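Per-record layout

source: Gordonia alkanivorans CGMCC 6845
name: CdaR family transcriptional regulator
length: 513
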Amino acid sequence: MALTVQRLSQNADLGLTLVAGHSGADRVIEWAHAIELADPAPWITGGELVMTTGLAIGPSDSEQFDYVTRLVRARAAALAVDTGMTFDAVPDGIRAAGDALGLPVLAVPPHTPFIAVTRAVIDDLTADRVRAVQQVVDQQDKFARDLLRGGIPHLVTALGRALSCSVVLVDAEGGALSVHGPDAGRALEHARSVSRGSGRRRQAGSAFADEHATYLVQSVSVAREPHGYLAVASPAALQPEERLLVAHAMALLSIELGKPAKVLDAEQRLRTVVTQALVNLGPELDAGLLRYFGFDEDTRVVAITVTNVGPALPALRETADVITRQSVPYLLSPIREGLLLVVSDDRGRDWVVELVARLGARLERTLRAGRGGTAVIAETAVSLRQARAALHLGPTQETVVDFSDTGTFSMLFGGRSPGELSAMSRIVLGPLEDYDAAHGSSVDLVTALRTWLRNDAHIESAARELGVHRHTMRSRMAKVGQLLGRDLDSAEVRVELWIAVKARELLDVLETD
């Protein structure tokens, strides 16, 4: 807490009395200086409590007014007048000038020496400095924890909150990695401007101000190569303690952006283990493992499955690189059909579309992705089942299928366990499955039914797809109707059969995982 004139006057040991200039009582005292010159201005720099016995203030009101005027012009914080030597009380001229010019005037009692006032000021300033340093140290520890728990976005947010400023981090090409605060838009523009100029001038950073804020832009370098730029937009120039926080945040960012390949590989191996454990253990997984990757037990997430990624190691490496550049907390693991990605639920379909496009370009493959529904992180397995369902039940022409895009199926199958799906399909298709099992591979009535329904109950089209004669197809469908005891010409029956077939398809996907 800064030492104001009001606070100093409340020090009972000193016994000072504020006798004039009450409007400036909240002025901050930066030093205390005893001086007996008629014009102290050349000897002070601003913010001082000027102490005098009154030897040179002049006997007349006009001289005293001029004396106070010179202190005001020199930006003194306050004037303290001894009342035990030259004057028994603060002169009326000094009081009137203090009130007129807004300079606080303190009466110093005879028993209080100036050295006591000076010590009180120095002690308070020292304590304030110690508090400020301790706050910086505490905040530095918090920055490290935030980086470990939430990655770069958490660190940028923590810096912005600590400074009450807007903070932006961009990569070396000017791409936004993380933003925080109401003035982030302008800070982002300035950061990008510096990043564009760095290639020509090797700019380490810049500081400037406009009508909106004061901006500090610094390069975040690794081995002298800029990996990004941090911009801070503040209402006024940063104080030394605040600059220390910025410097510490930049050091942490440099470490994070410059992780060696071996560290990244080890981190990804751990991420894979945690992802697989999360799917298998759910709420039993230690939440501390999740915090390391930027999640906690209350985070709501979505599971994303990406297919046709090719060999797992290159796919994992490229996916991790694409997402890390965006500073998005994530979990990632190879699965049977490709990759499983877990991110916070604010990453919508458009984000997944962009991710698939970038990743597909890097891997030189045509990818498809399914996005599950929102779930608390302990229920990631449910979102994973929904993501798989989206891929197999959604429109095949779509590159990215959201579970909500599957319409009725999302309500029917959302989060269903393999046991529930088996019951849904078995109660309808059981007779066909038993018949197929008894007759081997020569006849597959379930496949015949699925193909017939997919071709809008058109015998010729279904036969052509299966590569059999239309009479064979007609015979098989007659057998289906006989075994099920249903009228296959009924629209209601066809809907029931189609739901059962889709449940069976999804069950096949889950059981082969």
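summary: The domain at 418-511 is CATH 1.10.10.2840 (Arc Repressor Mutant, subunit A). The longest strand covers residues 225-234.
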